[in-house]
Amino acid sequence: MKWQVTWTAPAQRELAEIWSAARDRQRLTEAVDRFDRSAEQDPRVDTDRYGNQERIAFAGPLAIVFRIIDEESAVHVIDVFRYPG
């Protein structure tokens, strides 16, 4: 099954702020691409529960918080922040 990954507007704005301030922009871009590809295949692999309905993935220097909507085969990214990983 292929999942549809969507970044909410607040998550996109936060990612843009992180990217604008970063010295390692290529690393950030690669981390987001890696997350998107992985989540499209199976959003539960290599992720952890985070709160009641959210999950979190650690991709390079980023922590990505998202919700899975099973009935829509959708992944909604709701937050992202730098993680010292």
Automatic annotation (TrEMBL):
One Pfam family cited in the UniProt record for this chain: ParE_toxin
Assigned keywords, A-Z: Toxin-antitoxin system
Source species, domain of life: Bacteria
Record protein name field: Plasmid stabilization system protein
Source organism of this protein record: Stratiformator vulcanicus
